[in-house]
Amino acid sequence: MSETRSRRRGEQLEAAILDATWKELKETGYSGLTIERVASRAGTSKPVIYRRWSNRAELVLAAWARQAPMRPEPVNTGSLRADLVELFSRIASRAGDIMGEMIAGVMGEAFRDPEVLALLQERLRSSPLKIALNRIVDRAVERGELPPVELPDRVTRLPLDLIRGGAMVTGGPPQKEEVEELVDDVYLPLLHGLSAR
Q: Taking the CA of residue 174 as centre, how many other CA atoms within 13 Å lie in the half-sphere pointing to its CB?
């Protein structure tokens, strides 16, 4: 084992740690996850993990990003509504039952630790969702479905906030009908209201 540990470096070691974190999350949930158990599963040590991630929340967010990357390029269906439904559905597919508990746990740490809060805020600012939504809206403007409109950061975060909040309350991602309701009853009216200003 020590021979294997000494050979793994860089990306290979990081991948092993993040994969071990994800397996621990699935087995124990966020509340049961410990750095010690992750280290044991990954065949490394706690100090090695702490050199890369300063706390459990940061490690969990990195593992989640590795397991469920968000594709920033949305499909182009030719319709604003259909593009939004597709994008919201992708977000919802990431919002499985583990996401609800994980995000709740990370949010709990964010309230206690300013560094975790800053990390969450940075993740939101650099989210591929912003790029995807702007592309969808730009295409809709080109097709004449919307007048030109600027999307404030809060508006680009809203789909994730709505779906994440719903997943935390219900324990699972929204179903297809709920995704369509979010698009039809919340997001499309918001976009039209912004473009009318």
A: 22
Separation between Cα atoms, residue 127 and residue 85, nearest integer Å: 18
Domain boundary among the residues 41, 64, 87 is at 64
Query: Is pLDDT of 99 > 90?
Result: no
Whether pTM > 0.90 for this model: the answer is: no
Domain of residue 147, residue span: 68-196
Of 64, 97, 114, the last residue of a domain is 64
Provide the percentage of residues in the chain whose pLDDT is more than 70.
Answer: 84
DSSP string covering 123-173: HHHT-HHHHHHHHHHHHHHHHTSS------HHHHHHHHHHHHHHHHHHSSP
- CA 52 – CA 196 distance, rounded (Å): 47
Predicted confidence (pLDDT) per residue in 105-150, tens digit: 777 777 777 777 777 777 767 677 888 899 999 999 999 999 999 9
3-state SS assignment for residue 74? coil
CB 85 within 8 A of CB 92: no
In whole angstroms, what is the distance from residue 149 CA to residue 188 CA? 13
Phi-psi region of 70 (alpha: psi -120 to 50; beta: other; left: phi over 0): beta
Torsion, Cα 33 37 39 43, to 10 degrees, reads -140
pLDDT of residue 167: 73
